[in-house]
Amino acid sequence: MNLHHLLTARHAAGKPVRVALIGAGKFGSMFLAQVPHTPGLEVPVIVDLDPERAREACRTVGWDAERIAATTFTDDGAKAASGPIEVIVEATGNPAVGIRHARAAIAAGKHIVMVNVEADVLAGPLLSEEARKVGVVYSLAYGDQPALTAEMVDWARATGFRVVAAGKGTKYLPAYHDVTPEGVWGHYGLTAGEAQSAGMNPQMFNSFLDGTKSAIEMAAIANATGLDVPGGGLLFPPCGVDDLPHVMRPREAGGVLEKSGVVEVVSSLERDGRPVFRDLRWGVYVVLEAPNDYAADCFKQYGLKTDASGRYAAMYKPYHLIGLELNISILSAALRNEPTGQPLGFRGDVASVAKRHLRAGEMLDGEGGYTVWGKLMPAAASLAAGALPIGLAHRLKLKNDVAHGEVVRWSDVEFDANNDTIKTRKAMEAAFAAS
After folding, report:
1. 348-432, which class in CATH?
2. Please, which pLDDT band fits residue 431 given cuts at 50, 70 and 90?
3. How many angstroms separate the CA atoms of 223 and 150, rounded?
4. Is the CB of residue 7 less than 8 Å from the CB of residue 331?
5. Where in the chain are all domains bearing CATH 3.90.1210.10?
6. C-alpha–C-alpha distance, residues 92 and 293, integer Å
7. Of the chain's two ends, which shows fewer C-beta atoms within 10 Å, N or C?
8. CA triplet 329, 330, 331: central angle to 5 degrees?
9. Does the domain spanning 3-143+323-336 belong to CATH 3.40.50.720?
10. Would you state the pLDDT for residue 433?
11. Whether pLDDT at 197 is above 80
């Protein structure tokens, strides 16, 4: 990739890559832990709602007093886009805030690395187009599963393989869709007290469990790669790494997929709760098809796991290190002017689905909450249904009852059409509905 060589040259020239971080939570902290060990990379500005918490995060990950003293800690997002900053990392996880920060970065001529997948799925195709028009990079965040999967898809296509399926692993059972923050910790083997003492946010962790985060990440992958979204939503088939070529192939070939060329998530649990053998819970994968008999023979000769036909094979990465790997995106943008994945179209959307029977007058509480979970849908189907995106299902009042398991629609909620985030989303739909 040559990034280290390019960074070393910048360091030697006294021209470090300067980064502003917005959001010093877990992802941001993991990134900050690598900064002292990356000569030529500097983070002079850290923006957080609680600057003192951000300062303490730096102490926790090993920053010395001199580095901390040389850093501006602020709650003013405008500071991220000012001065000699090359790359802004948006790691807040708030869709509305993320869109605002991305646009400010683009307007200031700064590259933007969007850790905030929630914002990317809500309006990323529009934001990345705006960035391209002014000559800056809008990028998914390397280390997170969407960028890692997009990289594997690009590798497969660039080497001449047809991508059959791509995605990630997770812990999943159908009952998880209805789990609320009140009951989430039992599924992680923790008590509420243990989770609280560790500073763990129940709503955030519940979004990983109830299927919402998986839907968001698969939508991001579909939008970045052009892969299709399953028509009925994610299947979450139980599947270990050795069985990927057998399970993750089209139904007509004996697998579970409705067709070739889709995103999908595999579960680390069998449907009865038993663990899958050699699961991919923390990793990403791509299933590819040999284009000819010679390539299929090569699969066998070089030890790839294949299906019985020998034509379907898989490559996978068993782990992802989120913020510890974020430098790849930052340096790719600053030194090569390239993203590590970016939305190029609007293929996948994430609709809000009722976790229980919801009554008119109730307030939706968003991703990972008590009222809705996020279901992956083809963008065209979501738009045709008038589905409310999960990224906007926060603090909106229902004006209609919605049955358990049904999609919440725009027509079911009260909303302000002049809200900036809603206007951005509507503009994205109008610009990319046919992509």
Report:
1. alpha beta
2. very high
3. 10
4. yes
5. 348-432
6. 48
7. N
8. 95
9. yes
10. 82
11. no
